[in-house]
Amino acid sequence: MTVPPRSLVVDCPACRKRLKLNAARYQGKRLQLRCPGCGSTVEAIAYPRLAHRALVAHPDPEARRQLCERISHLFDRVDVVEDAQRTLAILGIEPPDLLLMDVTLPGMLSFELIDRIHDRAELSHVRIVLLSESYRGGAYRRPPRSFYGADGCVDLDQLDELPPLLARFFLPPGKGEAEDSPQPETDRIRQRMLRDVERLRGSVDDSDPEQVRMLARLIVTNIVQAQQRCLDDPLQDVSCLEQLTLELEVGRQVLSRMAPAVRRQTHDYIRETFENFIRQRRLERAGAYYPGVEKTF
User: Does pLDDT of 292 surpass 60?
Assistant: First the structure.
């Protein structure tokens, strides 16, 4: 089954309303949209066509529909199949540029299918992305190459991450983005934080330090959940501290967006809140209790 090209689809990070645009009209542009549902600002990149052909392999018709909706404007042609045998058959007849494959594809284990692809020289150009529902809520994500030899992995409930990932595969560095635009990783972190705090838009008095601290606690809680592994053992991965630093910096940007008055202040609410969390965590992990120490979280 071949899916015809469709619109560019973007989810509002605040209310999850789905926005659809003419992909051909905005191709290659960076966009700022106003969500008709909640009025939030939605940032998106209308990537240009990435490659000729993609193959979506998933047993669930609804998942196939959602995936095609997200990538059909990026390829000249998108085919869909529901099991491993049909996937192998198409790979043998007309290899695609991209294979989006469910981790539990019926008929064959994921690593077996990927091994077969890697064993065939004529398929060496095929990019493989696994589709999963098992890595949610900021859980630890292993490096992409550990996913049975695939090039990457994307959660079905976080499909906004898919176009930036594919763009890194098929476009030269910087192609399709403005020179001063944030890196995809920064965009992903910002969107994740905004999903949790945009609902407070208009309800926070940024002249009230306690209300700003409440917002900072929401943002830091999001960072803590996403970087749980780094906080448990920051020495196990040399990239942990760099990632945590990036998260905190994006947290400051989100706070200043939600509470503009913070931009005119020198007080770092994000650092204050994060240090309070670390202090409290150390007390809890040591099993200590000190009267008068107020729990922040």
Answer: no
Q: Flag whether the pTM goes above 0.85.
A: no
- Domain ends where: 178, 204, 234? 178
**Stretch 118-130: mean pLDDT:** 90
CA nearest to 277, candidates 229, 220, 210: 220
Residues 6+ apart with CB under 8 A from 284: none
Give me the amino acid identity at 269.
Y
**Co-location of 170 and 37 in the same domain:** yes
Same domain, 102 and 172: yes
As given in the structure block, the two tokens for residue 128 are 């493989």
Tens digits of per-residue pLDDT, 181-193? Answer: 444 556 667 666 7
The neighbouring-strand residues paired with 75 are: 51
Question: What whole-number distance in Å separates Cα of residue 9 and Cα of residue 31?
Answer: 12
